[in-house]
Amino acid sequence: MPGGPRRSRPIRGRLRCCIVCGPARCRYPRDGPARRRSRRTDPPRHPIGRSADGLSGFRRQRLFSAAVFASSVSFRAGPSVFKDPGKLSFDYLPDKLVHREKQTQRLFSLLRPIVEAGASSNAFLYGAVGTGKTHTAKRFCLDFRKYASESDRAVDWDVVNCRQRMGDDAVLLRLLQHFDPHFPERGFSIAEKMESLRKHLEKHKLHFIVILDEVDALLKKSGADLIYSFARIAEEGTATKGNISMILISQRPNALEYMDPAALSTFRRSNVVEFPRYDRTELEDIVQGRVALAMHPGTVDDDLINLIADIASEFGDARYAIELLEKAGMLADEERAEEVAAEHVRGAKSHVHPIDVEERLGLLDVPKKLVLLSIARKSRKKAYITMGEAEEAYAVVCEEYNEKPRAHTQFWKYVKELDALGLVDTKLSGKGEVGKTTLISLPEIPAKVLADNLERSLKRR
Fold first, then answer.
1. CATH architecture label of 101-275
2. What dotted CATH number matches 279-351?
């Protein structure tokens, strides 16, 4: 009725009524066909509107469902060995990076002209997984920005992972969103984005340090055009116009070979900073520091720190050592143990691989996973396989997973993309092969580990 109170409609039927009240204490009619109710003789039905207790029927139903769930599942928070688990995250950046003082000082020597003369300077960092390249670059840039501000130099920085941001366009977008978080993802060409970046630098009179992590992925996919464009900005830049410098990071010492001579000329051999693998003593110091930050006192003894350092020293990988510590602590918490035991560390070793396999495979769609699985299976007994051998295995894998195999050209493109991601290595055959063919190898991840992870991933799709 216009202007009058809105009447709620009754809820009818057994099921809804029992959900609202609970079948054991339902006071309302549940049986029989729907009929018109007499206000004088029939008991009231559940209203959709507010009841005497102030709860709507929908809200009452939600509360009842929550009560049923709570009665069947119990989450009991027991004691934990962790004081601050965030200190074991890959993203956590310590105030001081132990055993990387030499590399930090080398970076300062290379980029010092930014503050002293407003000039551009570049550096190339290389080393194996878990040797502290990215963390050192980030820590350096944070401290260097403070150092520059003392001399009234405006310095800022940002890091882009080129495996996650594949291609010039994606890298530029990430850098522009550093200045403007709402910069649109579409509608601008690479040239227009480059001009926008230049204007931001001029507007803020800023010297911008760009860290390109896993830069070989960018160079393999798009070449060195973007790096050359940054170098051109650097040539024209001044302290009043703004300027740009670069820190390139790769696991491969020969990553710069993918550059053309024009771009390579901006990186001298003296601009290279090597990050060797950590030795056992260095890993012990790193783990000791993280234990102090992340774990409750007395939950991890020195013998366990030595055990973790011994296991991780095979790879010289600090990331692996920290992940072992984290997983061992999680296993201790699952058992409600008061401290981490050696058996927890051994159990962690069986769960943690020194290479971030799942993280890398998460970047792949199903067609690329099938290609990579075929390469992994064929590579179990051989260091190198030919493109033809990989395609033969690919046909078998596609049949196994009921997928239509792609043509040769598309298969070749997939292999090249896997190469850019660092999951495979490709090279042209040399002596001993008839004609020229592409040879494929697995650079880091063991073939069995890779195949097992891919098979599990494909089963979950």
1. 3-Layer(aba) Sandwich (3.40)
2. 1.10.8.60
Say which DSSP state 278 is in: P
Helix (H, G, I), strand (E, B) or coil at 78: coil
**Cα–Cα dist 202/209, whole Å:** 14
The CA distance from 266 to 417, in Å, is 27
What is the C-alpha to C-alpha distance for residues 90 and 132, in angstroms, rounded to an integer? 11
Rounded Cα gap, residues 377 and 10, in angstroms:
64
DSSP string, 215-268: HHHHHHHHTTHHHHHHHHHHHH-BTTTBEEEEEEEES-TTGGGGS-HHHHTTS-
Reported as a single tens digit per residue, the pLDDT across 227-283 is 989 988 888 766 567 899 999 999 988 888 888 887 787 777 779 999 999 999 999
Residue 64 is which amino acid?
A: F
The answer to whether 287 and 321 are in contact (CB under 8 A) is yes
State the pLDDT at residue 242: 84
* 144/382 Cα distance (integer angstroms): 47
pTM summary value: 0.71
Q: Quick count: other Cβ atoms within 10 Å of Cβ 347?
A: 18
3-state secondary structure of 129: coil
Tell me how far the alpha carbon of residue 128 is from its chain's centroid.
Answer: 18
The residue whose two tokens read 């509360």 is: 63
Coil, strand or helix at 273: strand
Spell out the domain ranges in the chain: 14-72, 101-275, 279-351, 358-459
